[in-house]
Design a protein that fits this description.
heterodimer, A: 90 residues, mainly alpha, 74% helix, rod-shaped, B: 653 residues, alpha+beta, Penicillin-binding protein 2a (Domain 2), Beta-lactamase, five-stranded antiparallel beta sheet, 22 helices
Chain lengths: 90, 653
């Protein structure tokens, strides 16, 4: 096996060192990139949560007994049944 | 040549050494300081307020929950010079007075909140204005989607999401979740680079109530109607499950909106059902008779001489509304005779009566899981003079909270067993794990089960025709209950001449009660008697509640001839020739007010109020009797066909 010339050893060491530095940089860039993605995802989650909250409020308001009672009376002409109109099945 | 090379190499070497020395200085000597400075510039640590847990009803309906919000703040010194031009827009978007916005923007303080708990849409409109020196902080806002529904029970929170009243306060330690943090960096364009932590933390615990939203709505609606109809100052209703003592509904008027509690007077935010007391009046007679039956001092048929309406005790004279001679114990309760009750009290004796009242829970907190409960006022035995025993026998000189009275009657309904009332069923985690649970908690057996059944039978007679509580009758069900009318105390001493509290408390179905309902109307103006003002509230709520719960009617109560025989007031009024008998009147006792409009419903009004109403609506009215309207019918004049409302008035109970 041929021996490397004297500067060759330093060249290999430098190459390894460079590779390590580049790897570190690459990993760091990946971390930053993932950080951006996480931040974006968090924003998306927050936005979806807000939308969910808004829809929850609308749902609760739409199904509130007072609202349903008003709709039943105004649109369908319904009212609380008189006793003789109620038949409770056994 | 080599000298020059050596010189250049030397200079480069020195330069390199200087660089290395500087590097060592920066990294070793100043390293920590600079690292901290750098971290301050781009590291970003944010405290995330935990999402406050939701409060849901027994069916999972969300009565209170938290949503993300923004709190806007300004650094007045950093605001642009043309900020004046933006004041109208800011005021409009934030629904604030322009003067208030102007004052905030011109504050001398370095930091001022502009508005806290702003919805994100609102905040984004403000941010779109791009005002330098105006920024926001993520926070949360409590939302009560049903607004005033069950507000005094739910309570409310402050801007820091801390519970101040009601369930929000009592269960604050559960509703508040753990504080968390996010760690991130900001790049040159201030974009976030997340390193650790998440966004808004989901709720940790959820509080589930025993309350039923539909029953609560029915209770509030009927109470509101009654308070408006009688022009009363206030009112409250409790619906209790006597088998568990779970509170199914707790309504009061006037109410407040917990979304904006600051806009309502403090008086409306108080939970009157546990923090106000009143003299129960005749509703206490049921407890007296229960005690007397339980000790064997009296039986249902024992005669009590009621002194023909006036009974002298020492220097005092006790009166009945209607004079009676001899009444059985049963009839004393049905007719609500004060003198009869006084004599039963004397037979029972003050020691035993006091012990029974204590055992029923009077004069002490019920232990309900709500803040602000008071003891009521049951005078100590030492203060019980001869006249005190007499007055307490018919419900004067003793004060109870509505919840205390409801619990005492629930004990009668529960075969004599008193339990601790509760409003929170359990506290669960997101995964459904129960971390805290309430359930039926027996306290003591107050009276024997057989006595409880006997007193329920007596209370059924109160609701039958001829009883003071006949307007609480529900077709198809056996109802047991008691009316109460009491004078309010005068701040100057003694009793008020005009202030009255009308109440009715009942249980249904009487044979195996599913519901105990108490209705209290404070200072009604049109009529003052519990049987006139409060019993119809009980009846309207109970009828709808039983239908909603699918409770089967009582055996033998399917057809009620007395009430079914009532002729309709509208649209087919009886002819002019119809007999002028009491059966021809619409007594309004079983919720038939649905047949009448608000305009032509005179039931429960005094003569003066009825005449005023008729005059205002252009109706012709003929009155028979005196007191309050207990029946009405319409006749058409033979010649002109004009409708005439005939009102039957009675000096009520």
């Amino acid at each position: 096996m041929r021996k490397l010339p004297g500067w060759g050893k330093y060249g290999v060491l430098a190459a390894v060192g460079l590779a390590l530095v580049l790897s570190h940089l690459w990993i760091r860039l990946q971390v930053v990139s993932a950080g951006y993605a996480l931040a974006d995802t968090r924003q998306l989650i927050n936005a979806l949560q807000e939308e969910h909250h808004t829809l929850t409020i609308e749902w609760e308001a739409a199904t509130a007994p007072s609202h349903l009672s008003q709709l039943a009376g105004d649109r369908l002409g319904l009212s609380v049944p008189r006793p003789e109109q109620i038949i409770i099945l056994p | 040549m080599s000298g020059r090379i050596g010189l250049v190499a030397g200079m480069l070497g020195v330069g390199l050494l200087l660089i290395v020395a500087r590097l060592v200085h920066l990294t070793v000597v100043q390293g920590d300081t600079l690292a901290q400075r750098a971290a301050r510039q781009h590291r970003h640590r944010e405290t995330v307020t935990p999402q406050r847990g939701a409060i849901v009803d027994r069916n999972g309906r969300r009565l209170a929950f938290s949503v993300g919000a923004e709190s806007l703040y300004v650094h007045p010194a950093k605001l642009p010079t043309d900020v004046e031009d933006m004041i109208p827009a800011l005021a409009q978007h934030l629904s604030l007075p322009a003067q208030q916005v102007d004052a905030i923007l011109h504050s001398s303080k370095p930091f001022v909140w502009l508005k806290r708990g702003v919805f994100p849409q609102e905040a984004s409109q403000i941010k779109a204005l791009r005002v330098s020196g105006l920024d926001s902080k993520s926070t949360q806002r409590r939302v009560y989607p049903y607004r005033t529904l069950a507000a005094p029970l739910l309570g409310f929170v402050n801007v820091d999401a801390k519970g101040l009243e009601g369930v929000e306060k009592a269960y604050n330690h559960y509703l508040l979740g753990p504080v968390s943090h996010t760690l991130g960096e900001r790049d040159g364009r201030q974009r976030a680079i997340l390193i650790r932590g998440g966004g808004q933390q989901p709720e940790t615990f959820r509080v589930r109530l025993t309350l039923d939203t539909t029953l609560q709505y029915v209770a509030e609606r009927e109470l509101n109607r009654a308070v408006q109809h009688s022009r009363a100052a206030a009112g409250s209703v409790i619906i209790l499950d006597p088998q568990t003592f779970a509170i199914l509904a707790l309504a009061q008027v006037p109410a407040f909106d917990p979304n904006m509690p600051g806009y309502f007077p403090p008086d409306t935010r108080r939970n009157r059902v546990i923090s106000d007391y009143y003299e129960p009046g005749s509703t206490l007679k049921a407890l007296l008779v229960a005690a007397a039956l339980d000790t064997g001092q009296v039986s249902e048929t024992d005669p009590i001489f009621c002194e023909h309406g006036a009974y002298r005790v020492g220097r005092h004279t006790i009166h009945d509304v209607h004079p009676y001679g001899e009444l059985s114990v049963d009839r004393v309760l049905t007719k609500s005779s004060n003198i009869g009750a006084a004599k039963i009290g004397q037979l029972l004796g003050k020691e035993r009566y006091y012990d029974y009242l204590r055992a029923f829970g009077l004069g002490q907190k019920t232990g309900v899981d709500l803040p602000g409960e008071i003891n009521g006022n049951l005078p100590s035995l030492r203060a019980w003079s001869r006249i005190k025993l007499v007055t307490v026998s018919f419900g004067q000189g003793v004060a109870v909270t509505p919840l205390q009275l409801a619990c005492a009657y629930a004990a009668l309904a529960n075969d004599g067993m008193l339990m601790r009332p509760y409003v929170v069923s359990d506290v669960v985690t997101r995964t459904g794990e129960v971390v805290h649970a309430n359930g039926p908690t027996p306290l003591r057996q107050v009276i024997q089960p057989e006595t409880a059944r006997r007193i329920r039978t007596l209370l059924e007679h109160v609701v039958e025709p001829g009883g003071t509580g006949r307007r609480a009758h529900i077709q198809g069900f056996r109802v047991a209950g008691k009316t109460g009318t009491s004078q309010k105390s005068d701040p100057r001493g003694g009793y008020s001449e005009t202030g009255r509290i009308a109440s009715f408390i009942g249980m249904v179905p009487a044979e195996q009660p599913r519901l105990v309902i108490l209705a209290v109307i404070d200072e009604p103006q049109t009529a003052t008697y519990g049987g006139t003002v409060a019993a119809p509230v009980f009846q309207a709520i109970a009828r709808q509640a039983l239908t909603y719960l699918g409770v089967a009617g009582s055996a033998g109560e399917g057809v009620d001839i007395q009430w079914a025989a009532r002729p309709p007031v509208s649209p087919a009024p009886p002819s002019a020739e119809s007999a002028f008998s009491s059966e021809a009147y619409d007594a309004g006792g079983d919720g038939s007010s649905a047949d009448r409009s608000e305009v032509d419903d005179f039931i429960g009004l005094s003569l003066r109020a009825a005449m005023r109403k008729a005059s205002a609506n252009g109706l012709r009215v003929v009155a028979h009797g005196s007191g309050y309207v207990t029946g009405q019918r319409v006749r058409n004049k033979a010649q002109t066909g004009e409708a005439v409302y005939e009102l039957r008035l009675e000096a009520d109970w």
